[in-house]
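FW: tagging you since you asked about this chain on Friday. Here's the raw sequence from the shared folder, copied in full. Didn't touch anything.
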Amino acid sequence: MSRKTLKILFAASTVALALGNTAFAADKTKVCFLLKTMQEERYQHDKADFTAKAQALGAEVVFDSANNDEQAQLSKFENMLSKGCQVIVLQPVNTGTAGKMVKTANEEKVKVVGYDSMLVNGPLDLMVMQDSWAVGKLQGQAMLDWFKKHRDGKIEGNVALIMGQPGDSNATAMSSGALEIIKANPGLKLVVEQAHEGWSTDKAMATTENALTKYKNKVDAFICNNSGMARGVVAALDAQGLSSVDKVFVAGSDADLTNIQYVAQGKQTVEIWKKVKPLAETAAEVAVKLAQNPDKKPADVVKVDKTINNGAVDVPTIVTEIVPVTKDNLDSTVIAGGLYTKDQVYGKK
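HL: got it, structure written out here
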């Protein structure tokens, strides 16, 4: 074979390889992950765990968050559609209006997987979530145990329910679980039932300050929909010398490090660990599988736990684990589970 022939064959193979690589790049799975906020510490874990899992499965990931701004989220969602995302995993800022985004995506043959907060009145393709109602119920059950221990066995006293974003389906579900416990115990008086725009720590602190003033520091228990608002409650209690589990019950949810430290320090009674890693990794796996099987129904591609009607459709739903964390089980839960180290929780000795 002549040198000239070899050069021609080499050039042809180089072109073919380049074309093959281009085709591979064009065919690469692209999934998008849009969170409502990065305000809470836990969302750093959501982002990292989702991204790592999706990339390990060979997908390209486009990530963004909306700073709890509904209009900003709409703009970012539309931007993701323009970038050619095959599946968008969405944690909605406003669960009541986000259905419109899903309809737009579906019109462009893009599937939408709900994440953490179930949107209503929209044709959601699939949902990955924790049982928010169960979060509230676990908080309520922990409160009953606290009353029995710290109030001479009596379940009697004033309770404040510190709720998240007004109208948010997650906040509503968590609150419903707690309210079921409160209403089942006639000795408990619900003195505060307040929603907080943007799940704001500062607004929760102000609500707590007002309640303590109105009831002359006689509020026995605070149940909070997330960690950030629980920190606001603890700050207000601290100013009155009441930030102790022996004096006031405080429950949070999300397992932010500061709150886990509060549990270790005896400032907060319980924090519900909504395990982020299985939630985020499951969402990533689902997104990649749906992107790779665009013509199949979601329930035929992944195993679901149940269906939930969101007002528009029966949504195939996958539910991941939640765990109550107290001072007694810190080592066997968040530390053994690798969420935090002993040094992070207890401080270096």
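FW: The CA atoms of residues 145 and 307 lie 33 Å apart.
HL: agreed, and The longest strand covers residues 188-194.
FW: great, closing this out.
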